[in-house]
Amino acid sequence: MNKRIAIIGGGNLGVAIAEGLIDSGFSKPADILVTRRNIKVLQPLKEKGVQVSDDNKEALRFANLVILAVKPFQVTDILESLRDELDIKKHLLVSVVTGYTIEHMIRATGKQLPVVRAMPNTAIAIQESMTCLAAHEVSKEQRDHVDDIFNQLGRVVWIDEKLMDAATVLGACGTAYAMRYIRANIQGGIEIGFDAATASLIAAQTVKGAADLLLKKGSHPEQEIDKVTTPKGCTIAGLNEMEHQGFSSSLIKGIVASYDKIAKD
Ligand SMILES: NC(=O)c1ccc[n+]([C@@H]2O[C@H](COP(=O)([O-])OP(=O)(O)OC[C@H]3O[C@@H](n4cnc5c(N)ncnc54)[C@H](OP(=O)(O)O)[C@@H]3O)[C@@H](O)[C@H]2O)c1
Questions:
Q1: Contact 96 CB / ligand 1 (< 6 Å)
Q2: What is the pLDDT of residues 125-144, one digit of tens each?
Q3: 8 Cβ inside 6 Å of ligand 1
Q4: What local confidence, expressed as pLDDT, does residue 200 receive?
Q5: How far, in Å, from the CA of 219 to the mean position of ligand 1?
């Protein structure tokens, strides 16, 4: 596959992907083309050397690998308008469009194209996304290429497409759950004496460090909890009170409620 990447939909996510690939050194700006209708907004990318266009057909001429980053209600029209130019021997479509299935993509293109469905999260803007990927009819080379791309933008896991809704909840909604947890820590921190800025720093860095302990050491949360909980100490007293108030149960119920909502809609 050539190194060029086209991104159809230069909004929040499309631009974050382009910038992440450039900042990580994975892509040269000239090897990326981004489309949207209002290309004036893409001027900062253009100044970095990224190609910009309002013509999606140009994206298909430019690259084999085409990332779709438009809103769900826009994608069918776009794919239908590109039917004639889409070539199953040349193109690999990678869609980050929420809720738009591989089956939808095949139906809209009218072709058995190699496609990858991706579910990143907002931390893609700082190359710290958790991205879940599902593939259809892709070669090993294509799969490795997509893996490389999203590995520049955070961590990657390949899943069965039937788990994409679950990935949306745990990986994408998960950012919001984590923010609420941090916010509650900040509120508690203020009540026990810190100003808001200091409480925010302590809460965010502590959560980041805790997550890194799991990611870098591969340990289980409970192993790390054991290291902090002195018998008769303040940590276990606080943890047990949180559990009496339904801490773990409320998180699990929230995750299941989000999942049920996706399934219902
Ligand atoms: N934000 C996230 O963290 C996140 C995470 C996972 C998945 N997603 C999914 O990613 C997709 C994009 O999200 P977003 O937040 O980046 O949305 P967004 O900021 O609204 O970006 C969509 C972009 O598509 C462009 N567009 C619309 N019609 C077009 C067309 N015909 N040809 C080319 N470009 C066109 C729009 O620009 P113009 O109006 O100028 O054309 C806009 O810049 C959504 O489907 C979302 O569900 C987002």
A1: yes
A2: 999 999 999 999 999 999 99
A3: yes
A4: 98
A5: 37
